[in-house]
Amino acid sequence: MDKTTQKLVDYAMAVNFSDLSPVVVDACKTRLIDTFGCAIGAYHAPLCKQTREMAHRYTGTPAASVLGCETASTAEMAAYANGVMLRFLDLSDSYRVKSGGHPSDVIAGLLAVAEFSRADGRSLITAIVVAYEVYCAFCEAVDINSKGWDQPVYSILGTVLAAGKLLGLTREQMGHAVSLALAPNMALHQTRRGELSNWKNNAAANASRNAVFAVLLARDGCTGPTAIFEGRAGVFDVVGRFDWPKLDPSPLRLSKTHLKSFPVNYHGQSAVWAALQLRGKVQLENIAKIHVEGYHSAVEEMGSDPAHWAPRTHETADHSIPYVVATALLDGEITPTSFSEQQLHDPRKARLMGVTTVVEDKALTAKFPESAPCRMTITLADGATIQSYIQSPRGHADNPLGEAEVERKFMLLSRDYCDEAKSSKILSTLFKLDGVRDVGEIMRLFVIPQDTPN
Fold first, then answer.
1. Where are the strands (E) in 284-416, listed by range?
2. Angle between helices 106-116 and 199-219 (to 10 degrees)
3. Owning domain of residue 350
4. Domain match, 378 and 238 both
5. Which of 206-215, 247-256, 348-357, 382-391 has the lowest mean pLDDT?
6. Residues 251 and 368 reside in one and the same domain
7. Percentage helix, strand, coil for the chain under 3-state DSSP, each rounded to 5
8. pLDDT of 313-359, one tens digit each?
9. Which residues of 345-382 are buried (b: 16+ CB within 10 A; e: fewer)?
10. Of 221, 256, 291, which residue constitutes the final position of a domain?
11. pLDDT exceeds 50 at position 452
């Protein structure tokens, strides 16, 4: 293996639970609770149901649980189905530096491997922290999006290293697993351009599936390219050479990720908060213009394409500043139901989107990613204006959600999934994850027998 792969493998293999500070362990539990909440909140969505049914067409060993179901699937397809659920609502955590994505995407693959390898809670926590550290450091090292590659590239690397650690691969096997994950799975950023499709929700789940497959291949003796980063036509040739930032032996990056308050692209969180601040100060029928100023990434991802002013799919709408601002102004909230067919075709939203402009303010761009600012100015029919400015949304690392807020988010998301007593039991167990002897116990807590696919 090349020197870059060696560095990553040696790092992943060296981190132990004893290296983790109590702050990071607690932050890991919080993010796992947040991620499970996102998954069960999406459980009844047609795409998620379809994906579970697909997963249950696959049987074999090693097997792992599909969330909520009594019967297992293969570990790879369990990772895929659970990955689709945890990302469907676009409500999972985020990390934004040179580039970014959703580090919690790694959790689907790690749950599958932890379950079939009978790992305990401490091993799962350690694996999640390692995967986050690699994912987030990769985001700091290079903006792969600007080079045409999508965020699952970050995800598959973090997942495969941590999954290999869980499975107890040798150093040599770990190196092959990294190559077997990256070589066939460089994902295109076109997934997040124009009219968005179901694949926006599924791309990271596919990375989890492929990471699990890669560690199983390596475990069983399959070899991968020997110089996946530094060799001719390797990662460095494709995206440009970059230096890895320091990977801390006592990892901290997980605790610096951002949690979401609303089920929309992270770059739209501040715009929603700004709209909610102004909502009670105006008569909506008197709004003549809505002017949104944001940082470059927010404008590029959520306010630069004609589809953002006329979204026809859930995936496009939750990535549209005009749509989420109109929804917040009209409804006073944004929930998973805000993206139904009826909501997408609401003529009141169409009118507000039609008077919305979205532009970059370079001064705001200079503040990102240390903060995620947005300025919104509403002009009324009589020419009067009102304005709101958000420095960072609730949930940002410098404006974090508290434990009670994360619990409340979980309970709200679980309302249509199970009763309050079951939700409370799940929460109690997850907060004590470091004392759990078998991760399979966690997965069994989520089973809903009457909803298991045939």
1. 287-294, 356-360, 374-380, 385-390
2. 40
3. 266-390
4. no
5. 247-256
6. no
7. 55, 10, 35
8. 998 999 999 999 999 999 999 998 999 999 999 999 999 999 999 99
9. ebeebeebbeebebebbeebeeebbebbbbbbbbbeee
10. 256
11. no
